[in-house]
Amino acid sequence: MIGVGLIGAGNWGRNLARHFATLPQAELKYICDLNPEIRQAMAVSYPQTVMTDDIRTILSDPNVDAVAVAVDAPLHYRVAKAVLEAGKHVYVEKPLTLVSAEARELVDLAQARHLKLMVGHLLEYHPAVDYMKAMVRRGALGKALYLYFQRVNLGIVRQTENVWWSLAPHDISVACYLFEAEPVSISVSGQSYLQDDIEDVVFGSLKFADGRMAHIHVSWLDPHKIRKVTLVGEQKMVVFDDMEATEKIRIYDKGAEVRRSVESYVEAITLRNGDILIPRIAPGEPLRVECQHFVDCVMSDTTPRSDGEDGLRVVRVLEAGSLSLCRGGEPVGLDTASVAAHA
Ligand SMILES: NC(=O)c1ccc[n+]([C@@H]2O[C@H](COP(=O)([O-])OP(=O)(O)OC[C@H]3O[C@@H](n4cnc5c(N)ncnc54)[C@H](O)[C@@H]3O)[C@@H](O)[C@H]2O)c1
Known about the structure:
- With 343 residues, the chain is of the alpha/beta class.
- The chain folds into 2 domains: 2-123 and 289-307, NAD(P)-binding Rossmann-like Domain (Rossmann fold); 124-285 and 318-335, Dihydrodipicolinate Reductase, domain 2.
- 35% of the residues lie in helices and 31% in strands.
- The protein has helices spanning 13-22, 36-45, 55-59, 76-85, 100-112, 127-137, 163-179, 286-300, 308-326, 334-342; strands spanning 2-7, 26-32, 50-52, 66-69, 89-93, 117-120, 144-154, 185-191, 201-207, 213-219, 221-233, 237-241, 249-260, 266-277, 332-333.
- The strands form 2 sheets. Strands 14-13-12-11-7-10-9-8-15 form a 9-stranded mixed sheet. The protein has a 6-stranded parallel sheet with strand order 3-2-1-4-5-6, with helices on both faces.
- Bound molecules: nicotinamide-adenine-dinucleotide.
């Protein structure tokens, strides 16, 4: 058993509480939240768990091995750093931090102290994403060419970070996970309609070194609720629709074959429109899988799938995207962005 503390039990943190309170190898010892109404409600649901408004109560208890952090994103760095400095493993919600230098500092701190640092890149634990990853790995789609993500809805409208920082971490983490690479350049454009300088709708393009590409459309000002990933390969195409209750993955046996002459002129392009397959996806609530993975990594001293380096990579891409957004959509290299952020 490991002793777990939770800091931040708002809209999302309460889901973490539900899992950490019921995983067989974890004991949810503390819930910390500044809001007394939240503490009151949580005390009713979790009578065995101590409620507090002071993170020091958790950090000073030697029976707490690991802490999950689900406070507002601008506080992630400060709270996660305090947890690591107290010698405890930490799970931090996405995005790891809002500045890549701070994410780097957390990664180094965790490494120096031999502690686990895991980031809540939820979709990396989704059975449907696992399925797509396995297809890419065994070449079932042919060469993976490009990906696009649609993550749009009406709300929740955030006031501290824009929609790029709020929603795109999921898509960036999946793009890097599926392609097993990080992008070399990012171009992002968007618009603030509801609040000054907080973009509500953003379109981002990530270019990878070998010509692969990922496009991300995120918005909290949209009539549709869409959570969709489309991956186009040379031989097949696959769509993951998270709004579907059961048939989350569809594999399209569709493609185009280009015949070239010796001089490399295109002679003919033949289109193939084959069957559509809906595979059975292993059951599993992604958040539960993710919480279990954190506990397993702490107990077996193994590196989390979405470790600090993964969190840092996503923050670097977000940062480059922000720079591009400020420059009106101009492509920004990942390294250029880091230099600019440190300047
Ligand atoms: N993985 C996902 O799919 C997902 C989904 C939603 C939100 N999130 C992330 O979860 C985090 C929280 O988002 P939310 O929607 O729950 O926000 P929220 O505002 O509903 O909750 C944040 C909570 O943190 C508490 N808090 C703030 N400062 C604190 C402190 N110093 N000590 C103790 N408690 C403190 C607040 O009282 C509040 O209850 C964000 O980082 C967000 O990006 C992740």
